[in-house]
Write a structure and sequence with these properties.
heterodimer; A: about 325 residues; alpha+beta; Helix Hairpins; Heat Shock Protein 90; 3 domains; five-stranded mixed beta sheet; two-stranded antiparallel ribbon; 9 helices; elongated; B: about 230 residues; Rossmann fold; four-stranded antiparallel beta sheet; 7 helices; about 30% strand
Chain lengths: ~325, ~230
């Protein structure tokens, strides 16, 4: 555009000089060409402005959430677009609201159910235990034990939802040996029922910075999962190592492993894999990751199995607790 | 498959001498993967990252990001592609000194003529823990904060892949671990595909897939053989 403008100026000046020297009759031709160039410039300027205005409007339509929904009334294309985007945004808002409400309801419902079923359940169990020994009585007792387990899981889940983990986590310098011992002793009897061997490789004197009780729960969940998916008579290996920045605890088993596709999903709440077996509501691994994360650690599943990384020194709390709000 | 590099080779010519920094590397990365590339200095890992991100030109071979062939593009188109779809995090942060954190983070969007959404930028900065520092100049920030600002800038454009070249290289071990945990979280919660270069074996352990590179060749890949 600038070029056209300069060309026009040149033409005018050059034309004027030539004309003044030779032929005054050609002045009209030169003036005509110059006028065309100037028109072109003006047109370009106008087009550019128009485009800029359009861009600004599109941007406003799409990105300016604070703009109150001025009802678009004209019937140009942009207006229609604006109308559509506004509609879509409104729908999205409603959906989001409904979703978050539903979620809050669910969390409180879970906690209610867990609470309300505890009393009748323990009554059933107590009565089953007082019945004279018979296969039926034993089955009632076993089933109520299972149910208690599920309810416990739900309670733990709702506890975790209400940010109780965070308030209860008291990380301090602890020995890894103690952590492994505590988790292993919890899973011991379950491993016994499947004759799964537990192999520990934990050198003496390893330390890291974590809350013993909660982290033991986290490790227990990994062990429980590994034992559950191990073949009868298999081995679950626990290995602890310490590095400059973190300590690492690995859990591996002889089970089939988790398919590549499901690896990121297994950490999600209520997720149960395609090959899931036995009881479970799909919160153990979710809890594990939350517990480890909130202490500045990391839980990982790779080809080698599960690993948890625990910091050697205290890590800034903002990394542990904050959800990424993206 | 979000990154696919085929037969990637880069030879540096210097007069009569030539140095093969990268030798016929084939690599593919799935969407949502967190890959670390380890190797000693001079092993070719930075060259690999630069080629994956379109910052260099290969002597031979091709790179496709989300199906788009990087080196079939004209230079201008490649620049735009990089700005929109590839996020970079460097060891030396590379924040622009005269701009504050907010301006640095919104700059790549601004170059595309897009006004950054205020709410979104705020939530990005606060989840990276630098919301309080949004009006600070890079020189007023600690190393960890500068790196987090650089990560925020890389993420503002919602890139298909995040390429990080020694992101913890200039940080002390604690801050480095924090940045690493942050990257892990981005990967897990947002399914952000990340390729991270590091010479720190310890940090590399924290990613599910590790690639080791030596003398310009991939010598081991823990994710090899997967479909």
């Amino acid at each position: 555009m600038t070029a056209a403008f300069i060309a026009a100026l040149l033409l005018i000046s050059a034309g004027y000089r030539v004309v003044s020297l030779y032929d005054r009759g050609a002045v009209w031709l030169y003036l005509y060409i110059a006028a065309v160039c100037l028109c072109f410039c003006a047109f370009a300027v106008l087009e550019r402005r128009k485009r800029k205005r359009t861009e600004e409007r599109i941007e406003q339509i799409f990105f300016d959430k604070t703009a109150p929904g001025k009802p678009p009334v004209s019937e140009d294309e942009l207006s229609l677009l604006e109308r559509r985007v506004l509609l879509y945004r409104r729908q999205e808002e409603t959906r989001e609201k409904r979703l978050s409400e539903g979620y809050a309801n669910l969390a409180s419902l879970v906690s209610d159910i867990a609470h309300q079923t505890k009393t009748p359940l323990s009554a059933i169990r107590l009565n089953a235990e007082t019945l004279s020994p018979s296969p039926e009585a034993e089955r009632i007792r076993a089933q109520s034990v299972r149910l208690t387990f599920l309810i416990d899981a739900l309670t733990r889940l709702s506890r975790c939802e209400s940010r109780l983990i965070e308030d209860n986590l008291r990380p301090r310098r602890e020995r890894l040996g103690e952590l492994v011992c505590s988790a292993v002793s919890d899973v011991w009897s379950f491993a016994g029922t499947k004759s799964v061997k537990l192999e520990c490789d934990v050198p003496d004197g390893l330390e890291a910075y974590f809350d013993l009780r909660w982290t033991s729960e986290a490790l227990f969940n990994l062990l429980h999962n590994s034992v559950k998916y191990s073949p009868t008579g298999g081995t679950v290996r626990i290995k602890a190592r310490s590095y400059d920045m973190f300590a690492r605890v690995d859990v591996s088993d002889d089970g089939p492993g988790v398919p590549e596709k499901e690896r990121s999903d297994i950490w999600k709440r209520f997720y149960r894999g395609g090959n899931a077996v036995g009881d479970g509501v799909g919160i153990g691994l979710y809890l594990t990751r939350e517990i480890v994360r909130r202490q500045g650690g990391r839980a990982l599943l790779s080809d080698e199995g599960f690993s948890i990384f625990l910091p050697i020194q205290p890590i800034g709390p903002q990394y542990g607790s904050q959800q990424l709000g993206l | 498959m979000i990154i696919k590099a085929k037969d990637l080779t880069r030879v540096y010519e210097n007069g009569a001498q030539s140095l093969c920094a990268l030798d016929s590397v084939n690599l593919s990365v799935e969407r949502g993967e967190f890959v670390s590339v380890v190797g000693t200095s001079g092993s070719g890992k930075s060259t690999l990252l630069h080629l994956l991100g379109g910052l260099d030109r290969p002597t031979r071979g091709s790179v496709a990001i989300d199906g788009a062939e990087l080196y079939a593009m004209k230079p201008d188109a490649l620049t735009v592609f990089r700005r929109r779809y590839i996020g970079f995090v460097f060891q030396s942060y590379n924040l622009i000194p005269g701009l504050n954190v907010w301006e640095n983070v919104t700059l790549p969007l601004g170059l595309d003529g897009i006004k950054a959404d205020r709410d979104e930028t705020e939530s990005l900065l606060s989840s990276l823990g630098i919301y309080d520092k949004r009006f600070s100049m890079p020189s007023e920030l600690s190393g960890g904060q500068q790196q987090r600002a650089a990560i925020a800038r890389a993420l503002a454009a919602k890139p298909h892949v995040l390429l990080a070249d020694e992101p913890t290289g200039n940080l002390d071990s604690k801050t480095g671990l924090e940045v690493m945990l942050l990257l892990g979280k981005l990967n897990e919660e947002l399914s952000q595909t990340i390729v991270m270069i590091t010479h720190n074996e310890e940090l590399a352990q924290m990613t599910a897939r590790r690639i080791r590179i030596e003398d310009g060749r991939i010598v081991s890949d823990s994710g090899e053989g997967r479909s």
